[in-house]
Amino acid sequence: MEWKLPSGKVRKLVEALAVALTLYGCLRWAGFYEFASRDAEGLATFTQLLGDIYAVLLAFTIFVIWGQFTEVENCVIRECNSFDRGQVLDHEWQALGDGRRDKRTEELFVQLIGVVVETAPSNEAEQAIHIRLLDMVQRTGDRRDERVAKSLTRMPPTLAALVNTVAGVLVLSIFVYPFRYWVAGALCLTLAACVIWLANLVMMDNDNPLKGIWNVSPQPFADLKL
Which domain holds residue 67? Predict the structure, then answer.
């Protein structure tokens, strides 16, 4: 799978950095950083503390999200090993990526269950096959429910807001820190902003396991249709 950064988001990052660096230069010219240098030690302690908090929050968030991501992938493999589900590839995959259920796929699966349950075996050989089919339908249904539930699970908005707020304040604390040389300050601000932007991109991209830069592949369902 080709990994490519979204051009629109990259453009916004560049524009924001251009504005921030322009403002940074104006503030240095105006003497703001001479005033801030009086509390340089306190700002450094605050920035370090905030960085530690952000690192812990980000690690926890990505750990949880990545666990959900891999669970969805495992659910797809287990479900495909149970039954042929072409409707999932054609319609439900896109719906779940958009955060909604596909009613038509659910209706077709219910119809499939009804056919298997209502079909009465006429002899012992068919009875054995019927029992086997019932077991397959039950396992497929359980795995489908698990896949759908995990695919629709998203990070709580409050957690995302907390991580993003801490990230924003961290960048701001670097912005106001009184570096001795303006080149060092501008470089540190740019690098910090880019790293935090990438971390946020990874966090939000992995939150949706079916859409984005890196996602769970629907190839197992495509292979069933061959």
Answer: 7-224
Q: How many residues does the chain have?
A: 226
Q: Is residue 1 part of a domain?
A: no
Name the residue type at position 78: R
Number of structural domains the chain divides into: 1
0.70 cut: is pTM over it?
no
Q: List, for residues 132-152, the tens digit of each pLDDT value.
A: 666 766 777 777 777 777 777
What would the two tokens of residue 107 be?
């209706």
Residues 6+ apart with CB under 8 A from 64: 155
B/e letters for 9-39, b = 16+ CB within 10 Å, e = fewer, are: eeeebeeebeebbeebeebbeeeebeebeee
Residue 175 DSSP SS3: helix
Assigned domain for 210 exists: yes
**Contacting residues for 143 by C-beta, under 8 A, at least 6 apart:** 75, 78, 79, 82
* Alpha-carbon span 72 to 218, nearest angstrom: 11
Contacts of 37 (CB under 8 A, 6+ apart): 178
Inter-CA distances, 176 with 64, 117, 193, 223, Å = 33, 69, 13, 55
Residue 133 domain-assigned (yes or no): yes
Asked whether residue 57 is assigned to any structural domain, the reply reads yes
> Phi and psi dihedrals of 168, rounded to 5?
-65, -45
